[in-house]
Write a structure and sequence with these properties.
The structure holds two protein chains of two kinds. By secondary structure, chain A is mostly beta strands. Chain A is about 10% helix and about 40% strand. In chain A, a hairpin with a 5-residue loop joins β19 (about 245) and β20. Chain B has two domains: about 1-55, no CATH class; about 55-90, no CATH class. Classes of the chains: A mainly beta, B alpha+beta.
Chain lengths: ~450, ~90
Amino acid sequence: MQADISALNAQINIEGLQWVARWRISNGRPGSFVVPFPTTHPINVVTHGDTRFDYGQYGIHLAQQDVLTFLGDADQVATAKFIDCRRSSPTFKRSLEIAFTPSSDRTLIVPPGVAHTFSGLEGIFTLNTYAIFLPPIEDMLKSTLGWTPENDIINLPLDTDPATVEGLVPMSEPASNRVYYKLADIQALTLANGSVAHAETRTFKLKSGEQVRLMLQAEAESPSRELNFPVSQISGVRFEHHGSVQTGSDSQIIPIGGPAPFYIVEHGTEPYDFDSFGIHLGQEDHLTFLGRADHRIRLKLVDMRKGSPTLHCEEWLEFLCVPHMELVIPNGVAHALFNMESIFTLNRPVIYLDDKKAYEPGKDVIDWPLLDKNYPIFNIHKNPASLEYMESLVELQRQATTTVPVVETPKAVIVTDKNTGKQVKVVLTKQTASVSNSIS
Amino acid sequence: MIKASDVASLYEVKPAVSDKLSVQENSFLRLMNVTKGRALGVYDRLAYLAGIKSAPLEDQYHSLDVSSLQALLMSAKKAGFSAQVLEI
């Protein structure tokens, strides 16, 4: 893996532009992985539809570092082009074109001030765990900034000659968590009613020869496909609209706010059905499914929550893979997904704690046999985890991802202790057959 | 007006500023202090924060009238765009 990253980075001639390895753990089947993203910050999922997709221009941010993980068919080749537009960069005006394939085991970092564009992204989902930078405090204390949000979407034509680019001064100071949380709040408020259209800047040359720069925003089309989503009979199970920013007829940006750390499950390309129900006591799943728009997913649910009005209600649901819809499964509701091959599941859960305030994400799962109808009843956790708790969880996850993964995702079963007659949970872990990734 | 110490809290590495200093809000600080009622109106301007970068190859702008700024704004409106002049 590290050799792969090194080979990719050897092609790169622009300062700061780089691929980094992403820690992931085997999910017990060939080509299937769990990929944690230890962050409390909002992120974006970018979809590109299933037909040919090329960006028509370069994009440059001054305040945002793109951190891009490309998810899709590992055999598909996409192309990226870059121009270093940073005036003070040692590689100012240098350009680069690279070919790459999507993979959950690496991430591309595009520093602010580096123009970038991609082609051949159809069928690929881009996960952007971006970083925000601010101007120096001396500038921020002025009533007029040299940089404004409006000016941060700078677009350049694809045929731009790198030798002619004007030097830009990107932001340099990393923003605090407060900035990210405010952004997540604003996104949640503004997108609560559905979708808005993508805005972009464009320079027009008037007949007089004058140039004028406009920010243009089309009216968003109202998405209709979610109308066909099933309604669950189980209390609390629901599909919700994420809210999205349309960038084209089949493409959109879907902000996902958090603040819980999230993870991706890559299910691989071989047939993939759950072999048992999964139940969480402390984790309300918020699932976004990434895959072909005509891919149908089947879901079996059983309510196992003590005191629930729909206790032991069971049902089958079937739905299409639509990324701007989110499936919410409350903690204590057993679930098993079928037909998951070639699907990536993004789970940004809401976390609840027990009275001891203890929670370990990797161990908060109970497996229950699909055919065992002697359904148990669980006491679920009900205390919402605080932001501080989530931040400490992120720190623990970051530490964990500095070590080489040696076990697969755990399986937890309920068995009876013959000595006491009580049911206990046993967490089973298995050594990985081979180390799937390493961070050096 | 906003306290400089509040501004400093926006930085991961908090810069040293005087506790007594207050400054006028700029566009970014207004954004950070936006209230729920005002949030709907500011999102357009926050495009960068939504991670928006380049547009797909669907040039919808060829048909716009560039004979003058006024004609451009009018034709953009007719084509269903909201348009904001950023600089001339």
